[in-house]
Specification:
Elements lengths: L6 E5 L4 H12 L3 E6 L2 H11 L2 E4 L5 H15 L4 E4 L10 E2 L2 E2 L2 H28 L9 E6 L12 H21 L4 E8 L12 H9 L10 H13 L7 E4 L9
Parallel strand pairs: 1-2, 1-4, 2-3, 4-7, 7-8, 8-9
Antiparallel strand pairs: 5-6
Length: 253
Amino acid sequence: MQLEGTAVLVTGGASGLGEATARHLASLGARVAILDIQMERAETLAAEIGAIAIRCDVTDADSASAAIARAKEEHGVARLLVNCAGGGAAKRVVGRDGPMALEDFTKVINLNLVGSFNMTRLAAADMIAAEPDANGERGLVLLTTSVAAYEGQIGQAAYTAAKGGLSALPIQLAREFAQFGVRAMGIAPGIFHTPLLDTAPPEVQKALGESIPFPHRLGQPAEFADLVAHIATNSYLNGEVIRIDGATRLAPR
């Protein structure tokens, strides 16, 4: 896949890994649509990088469908979907106050797993109906999972389950979409320096960085974005999840 002139959808594109991805893909000539609920941030970023900002709640079928249709009107059929929208909340399955509230679990599952599936099913339908390129490729769906899918920490049952589900999907999607020339891949980031981590004290950030085997630092969002671009342009990558974590393995807590 050639990125220059290609229509791209980035969910959660107003901040963190999504913002870095939107910036990098736009710098490579892609026609980027930033899909987010943080419209002020999204519009500011879009104006800066020459993208478009569209409000999108990935967990809502109508909102997602309308956002993709709007992006299609502006840029044409998206050949690359990067699912970066997500988040989590730490709660033990059974804590001091008893069992975790079921809605606390389902909320995280809906945002991370159901939201990514929602966007995937809609964007892939457009890709499948599009004309293939010279190599027979029609598009790429990229899921952002996490190393938490493999080393779930105490208090992270919902996030681990959501990211575990996402980690299982690339091979299934790749098999299902293969006949149409649509690829599916996943990226499992380790501990990255995102706005969420900025809320932690400096000494905590320093300790987290030093815990990484090599290099001894937090991951940079730009490194995640570089991997997104590489996956997009390397058409032999399909059906796999790539860890980007400096060889870290999460401790129990």
